[in-house]
Structure formats: C-alpha cells, structure tokens
Write a structure and sequence with these properties.
This protein is mainly beta. The protein is elongated.
Length: about 270
C-alpha cells in the first residue's frame, strides 16, 4: 500500500486552526494460505478531508470530516475438489449408490467500487514532565461505507449491488516523547504511542450468486465479516522542525488484532510560510 497526500493548516485565531488535505492510496494485496494464493487485489482510492483544531493552554480538540472513493480489481480462488457422496440406507432398506460430485470452477475475477464519508474528533491534553511530555487522548470515529462489486468466472461468483454500513469506534491512547533542541531554530521530536480501538464487531454485505440471479424466489444472501475489536495500535516517529521553516518526519504505525496485522512506514515534508 502506497499513500501520497498534500495538505495544509493555518491559524485563523488565537485558539483555532483550519486546514484541508487530499490524498491518493495505491493498493496491491495478496492473501496466501498453506503456500497457495487465495486472492490478489490491486486498486486505488482518493480521499479529501477538512481539518480543524482548537487549543486552550495544554488542552486540544482535533476535528476531521470528509470522504473518498475507491476502485479495485482482482482474482479470488473458488476451487473446490470433487466430493464423494455416500447416501447410505433408505427407510425401506435399499442402499443408494455412491456418487462423485463435481468440484467448483477454479477462480473468479472481480471488480469493486467503494465510497465513504465520515468524521472524527480527538480530545487530548499535553502534560510536560521535565524534558518529556505525556499526551493522553480519546478519539471517536464514525464512518459510512458503501461497497459494490461484480464477479465472473465460475458458479461461485458472488455479486453485490451496493451494501452500506455504519462504522463507529472509540480509541483511548497515549503518547510519550521529548523535544531535543538542535540549535536556536531547530529541534528534533522523538515519540512513541499506543492505543486500543473498540469498534463495531461485524460488517454485513447483501448479494446473490451470479448463477442463481435469474431463478424465481432467489433470496439475497447476507455475508457477515468479523472486525477485530479490540484492535491494538502502536506507533513511533521522528520529527525535525524549524530549519528555515521546513520540517521533515518519518513515522511507523502498526495495528494488531485477532485477524489483523498491519505495519506501515511513512515520511512527510512540511513547509511553514
């Protein structure tokens, strides 16, 4: 996954700062099991957000609202081997012959479209502790997500015209770090952070198998996907600030749960004017 973003924020009063950001993310994901490729997905998404920050002494509140769209394509393995069917004895004592049921086609190719809109609010306080600072925060997120997709290639192809879900989460976290003065105009910030995200535990998608779409009385199927909650988030970073108004940073962010393992490294350039 590669992300590029561009944004800015500036003070508009003693307590308020406003800004905006736009970004693009490229996806290239593969899922393997026992050495076999189960799925491969590529795609891209665009996001745009408006930002606001209120500060008063050592307290602050961050706000973000916005959304974006995404487009993806890939291949999913649907292969099932042949299955032996042994019916056994009937009520009148006859034995039915064994049968070898055919398997299901090898794979499907698919396309997906996504759209999302949401917002977040983060409350925090920065407490100085000698050369270190401690920053506990509490963040609330709400997001609406709509997903649609079409699959072709086998009788196991599954289509969904557009399923929408609301996602809510709360994340208590804390950050600890220090600012190291390099000169009269430059400083280096080193920090680490950790948090626990509690959220909705399930997503539901409504769709139909392509092979049965034209059959009378074909009911919709509801697929439920579990979401890790709690999800443990960690991070660390280095920020160089104040060199002729130019700042640079390198950050690591990770997320770990029962089924999730994510690691991301990013870098950014900040110009003050």
């Amino acid at each position: 996954m590669k992300t590029m973003s561009l944004g800015g924020i500036g003070e508009v009063s003693q307590h308020w700062s406003l800004g905006a950001t736009i970004g693009r993310t490229e996806f290239d994901s593969k899922i393997d099991f026992n050495g076999e490729l189960l799925s491969a997905t590529t795609g891209e998404s665009w996001q745009a957000y408006a930002l606001a920050k209120y500060t008063d002494k050592n307290y602050f509140i961050d706000f973000a609202v916005g959304g974006g769209t995404g487009s993806f394509k890939g291949e999913r393995d649907t292969h099932l081997d042949q299955v032996a069917f042994i019916p056994g004895e009937t009520l009148i004592g006859d034995y039915l012959p064994e049968a070898l049921l055919p398997g299901i086609g090898n794979s499907v190719t698919y396309t997906q479209k996504t759209a999302q809109f949401g917002g977040s609010a983060r409350l925090g306080i920065t407490q100085e502790m000698g050369v270190f600072y401690l920053q506990p925060t509490l963040q609330f997120d709400a997001r609406w997500l709509r997903v649609s997709g079409k699959e072709v290639g086998s009788v196991a192809a599954f289509n969904f015209d557009g399923s929408a879900n609301m996602y809510y989460s709360a994340t208590p976290a804390f950050e600890i770090g220090t600012d190291i003065a390099l000169s009269d105009i430059a400083s280096l910030r080193v920090y680490g952070k950790a948090g626990v995200e509690f959220s909705d535990k399930e997503w539901e998608i409504e769709g139909r198998f392509a092979a049965a779409e034209n059959l009378p009385g074909n009911p919709a199927l509801h697929l439920t996907e579990a979401v890790d909650s709690p999800l443990y988030r960690v991070g660390a970073g280095l920020e160089l600030n104040g060199v002729n108004g130019v700042g640079m940073s390198v950050r690591y962010n990770g997320a770990f749960g029962e089924t999730v393992k994510q690691n991301a490294i990013s870098a950014s350039l900040k110009v003050s004017f």
